[in-house]
Amino acid sequence: MTRTLLDTDAAVGLIDRAMKLEIDSARRWGSMNVTEMLFHCNVCNRIILEETSKFKEPNLRERLIKFITLNILTSFPGNLKGPVLNNTKGLVNENEFEKQKQRFVETIQRFPVHDKPMTARQPLLGSLNTEEWGKFAWMHMDHHLRQFNV
To answer: Is the pLDDT of residue 17 over 90?
Structure first.
């Protein structure tokens, strides 16, 4: 079954996992601490929910990456590097852990009830429709929660 953040149960499952995070949660890969990871997720999800872009036909590379990501992969591999523009390392104080965790929960809760099309462009996959964004966002959040063993 495909998991998507547009599904309430899938969103609640991610929230339940996030609630297990602690300020000193150890990472399995990458260089972000748990506060930076939550901030990163919050920034990315806010873009998905709030930015609008005109649909642009994806090029061959984007179509191939999108097909593999959304139809073949079941999860993102550990230590996967994202686009530089989404790098939040060093941009948030570790003391903001509880604030970022609460924002994470609030943002995830918005997905199943979001009533506008999601039209932001994904830097590697190009234009995604709302259903594709729901699946991609779930995979992205799952990746980072697994990064911190939850």
So the answer is: yes
